[in-house]
């Protein structure tokens, strides 16, 4: 079944100078203007296209990338205001309305807001700025170290709040983030744990990737420092972060792995590179 407001695979039925007509199945024929076509689709070929109703309520499609789909959260800019609400630019000719009743506070032209895109009772695409009501509606059936897609939200005392797979809320802890993150940014991440209270802890690298990354960094720093760093598991966390830009937890895991693999030895005054490892 073809859904409005989503990117789906549709079959090309016929073509003309102005564009193509696609099989919208339950929706009927969908027009794909040539200006929004990528490549030269052939009759009978399936193409991935975003389906929407244009300003004249005609079923239309685009193969170009859009900024948001139905069922997703996105950071979108207000293009215009009306007595009914604010219109958001999603990358097609027809903007999406945020009704006045779905705004946390009056929106302003030119500003971007976090919204959730949905179909209203009349089957039209709309958006809501009251996003909390669309989060955590299903059980969080994630496993530790599972890769997920994240959307970065606001920063708090704990770290960064994020939306997981357009479904759940989670937290990236400040002491485990060593890169610049911004509002509305999409990034890859991993589930750290789903806690007993249902809250979800996140990380930007898997446990294995984190260990590999930090272990390589420590080896590199050791080689640059002639095989010795005055750091160990008793060193203050802020010193480790200042010197190596990693958390103390990541540092301890990394040197533990390096010690077990006989890359380093750990002494009271710091860590030493084992001679054989310098050749690796």
TrEMBL record:
Location of the Conserved virulence factor B first S1 domain: 4-63, 70-128
Tree of life domain: Bacteria
Residues covered by the Conserved virulence factor B-like winged helix domain: 217-273
Entry's family note: Belongs to the CvfB family.
Protein name (Swiss-Prot/TrEMBL): RNA binding S1
Record organism: Catenovulum agarivorans DS-2
């Amino acid at each position: 079944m073809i859904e409005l407001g989503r990117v789906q695979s549709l079959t090309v039925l016929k073509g003309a100078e102005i564009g193509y007509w696609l099989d919208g199945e339950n929706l009927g024929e969908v027009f794909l203007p040539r200006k929004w076509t990528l490549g030269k689709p052939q009759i009978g070929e399936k193409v991935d296209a975003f389906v929407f109703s244009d300003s004249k309520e005609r079923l239309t499609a685009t193969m170009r990338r859009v900024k948001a789909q139905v069922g997703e959260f996105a950071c979108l800019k207000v293009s215009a205001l009306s007595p009914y609400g604010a219109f958001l630019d999603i990358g097609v000719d027809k903007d999406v309305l945020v009704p006045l009743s779905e705004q946390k506070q009056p929106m302003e032209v030119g500003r971007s807001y976090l919204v959730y895109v949905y179909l209203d009772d009349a089957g039209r695409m709309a958006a809501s700025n009251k996003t909390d009501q669309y989060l955590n509606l299903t059980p969080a059936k994630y496993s530790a170290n599972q890769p997920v897609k994240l959307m970065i939200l606001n920063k708090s005392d704990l770290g960064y709040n994020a939306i997981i797979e357009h479904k759940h809320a989670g937290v990236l802890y400040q002491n485990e983030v060593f890169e610049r993150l911004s509002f509305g940014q999409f990034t890859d991440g991993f589930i750290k744990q789903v806690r007993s209270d249902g809250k979800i802890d996140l990380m930007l690298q898997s446990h294995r990737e984190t260990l590999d990354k930090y272990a390589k960094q420590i080896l590199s720093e050791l080689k640059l420092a002639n095989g010795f760093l005055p750091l160990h598991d008793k060193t203050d966390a802020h010193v480790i972060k200042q010197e190596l830009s990693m958390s103390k937890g990541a540092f301890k895991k990394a040197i533990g792995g390096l010690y077990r693999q006989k890359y380093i030895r750990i002494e009271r005054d710091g860590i030493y590179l084992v001679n054989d490892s310098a050749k690796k």
